[in-house]
Design goal:
Helix content: 40-55%
Order of helices and strands: HHHHHHHHHHHHEEEEEHEEHEHEHEHE
Distance between the termini: 92 Å
Structural class: alpha/beta
Low-confidence stretches: 1-48
Strand content: 5-15%
Radius of gyration: 32 Å
Number of helices: 17
Strand order of the largest sheet: 4-3-6-1-2-5
Shape: elongated
Largest sheet: 6 strands, antiparallel
Number of strands: 11
């Protein structure tokens, strides 16, 4: 059969230009070499997400423990109409719940990463403060009911009863522990806290461990826990677990991080009136697993700062072997930070805090900062994933001179094509830039945003209220109060 080429049938092919072009491309030597198959890429292995305890899971766990303690009391309770038995029964229940409450308070402050990252340090601190008041109430109730029960049983007055009971070593230890708890509680009251320095307040709080040990000794001597070997073993196991967590996360982990990373101050740079950034350099900082929005507790090893761990947020993402915080002078310790010199050793414990990208549920995000609360949100402003227009930052300050990291914020906004607005003016001005309508005007589609809020407690509370009134569901408002 003769070979037919495109030239032989050119007149006919002219009527079909698309077919003609196809034949010319596929004819003989004009054929392109076959494309070799692309090598298969190995599947990307994503690191496992860090474990986080949700607020609901924490509440459920604490409630279940309280129910178990109440059940332990119920098994031992013997119904009776006698006055001394009624007092004694109430004393047993309040004592058991007080002991369990002490255990919960210690656990909340053990700095367990899964709890800190899931709940948030500021929320844990509020739970701890509120729970502490309940524990003190239960301790007082236990003391009064026990005194009344013993007095009713022996027919003596309360003063004689108190003198008699203090003769028992276990009860004397419990009384000392209760007085220590009361001392710590008084020091945490708002009026007392204003008058006490941060170092003094933290020193008094260390008495909590001694008070808990004395209370534990009293519990082992009483009939409620020693009721059976099972209840005694479980009670001791719970206390041993919390003690190990405290020892590990509050002592061992900070020492290990200090040895591993070798952080030192590199530079202290003024950022505004009373505000400085502290740049530090260390080794293997990627193993800190720090996320934008989190904070560390920093211990600067100088003569006047080594004994105090100061909570400061990262004001920029960890960059290779460098890490940075930005600090406003609001007290003695933060003022001393301004006088740090290059070369000072630093011990960092953390990271802590839940104001991170994992809380995000919407494509659009609003970051709302007040004062030096801009520091964690500046890091989020740079790193939160998003297309142009997805990220908006509102920065509240009294005047332009109080704006911190302004040049960096504007550079990030230009690079990411993100919105940046400064809300300037005194807090008592006639126009409130944080009013619901003002926020809706600045941020179209406000109700469809996730909102991250960080600032002083008053500003954070006012902003949260305004956002809810502006249509943002409360579960999409992620807030932390900035106290340093």
């Amino acid at each position: 059969m003769p070979q037919v080429t495109t030239e032989a049938v050119e007149p006919e092919l002219a009527r079909y230009p698309a077919l003609s072009a196809y034949l010319r491309q596929t004819e003989g030597p004009a054929q392109a070499p076959p494309i070799p198959p692309r090598p298969r890429r190995a599947p990307r292995v994503r690191p496992a997400a860090p474990l986080r305890v949700t607020p609901r899971a924490l509440r459920t766990g604490i409630g279940a423990g309280g129910a178990a303690v109440t059940a332990l009391w119920g098994v031992q309770a013997r119904p009776s109409a006698r006055l001394d038995v009624l007092f004694a029964t109430g004393a047993h229940l309040s004592g058991l719940l007080a002991g369990y409450g002490i255990l919960v308070m210690l656990f909340l402050m053990a700095r367990v990463p899964a709890v800190e990252h899931g709940i948030g340090a500021d929320r844990l601190a509020r739970h701890h403060a509120r729970g502490g008041r309940h524990v003190l109430t239960l301790c007082a109730a236990h003391t009064v009911l026990a005194l009344c029960g013993y007095a009713a049983n022996t027919g003596t007055d309360l003063l004689t009863t108190l003198t008699d009971l203090l003769g028992y070593p276990g009860l004397a230890a419990a009384t000392a522990g209760t007085l220590l708890f009361v001392t710590v509680g008084i020091s945490s009251a708002r009026a007392a806290r204003r008058r006490l320095g941060h170092g003094t307040w933290r020193g008094l709080h260390l008495l909590t461990y001694l008070a808990a040990a004395l209370a534990f000794a009293h519990q082992l001597a009483g009939p409620d826990i020693a009721y059976s070997s099972l209840s005694l073993g479980l009670w001791c196991l719970l206390h041993a677990t919390v003690a190990v967590l405290l020892f590990w996360y509050r002592l061992v982990v900070p020492l290990r991080q200090a040895l591993r990373h070798g952080l030192r101050v590199v530079e202290v740079r003024a950022e505004g009136p009373g505000v400085v950034s502290v740049l530090m350099r260390g080794r293997d900082l990627g193993r800190l697993h720090a996320e934008s929005g989190q904070f560390f507790r920093w211990r600067f090893l100088t003569r006047r700062l080594w004994h105090t761990a100061l909570p400061f947020s990262l004001s920029a993402p960890v960059d290779g072997d460098h890490v940075r915080v930005t600090v406003k002078a609001v007290g003695d310790h933060t003022r001393r930070v301004r006088r740090l010199r290059p070369g000072v050793r630093v011990v960092a414990t953390g990271p802590f805090g839940a104001l991170t990208a994992h809380r995000r549920t919407r494509r659009k995000v609003l970051l709302l900062a007040g004062g030096v609360g801009i520091t964690p949100l500046r890091a989020l402003f740079e790193t939160l994933p998003g297309e142009p227009g997805d990220i908006t930052l509102l920065y509240r300050a009294g005047n332009a001179g109080q704006l911190v990291l302004r040049e960096e914020l504007e550079a990030i906004a230009r690079t990411r094509q993100a919105a940046l607005h400064y809300l300037l003016g005194p807090s008592d001005a006639a126009f409130d830039p944080l009013a619901p309508q003002a926020l809706r005007n600045l941020v179209p589609g406000l109700a469809d945003h996730d909102v991250y809020v960080c600032g002083p407690p008053g500003m954070t509370a006012a902003a949260t209220t305004a956002l809810v009134r502006g249509g943002v569901p409360e579960d999409r408002i992620h807030a932390e109060c900035f106290t340093y």
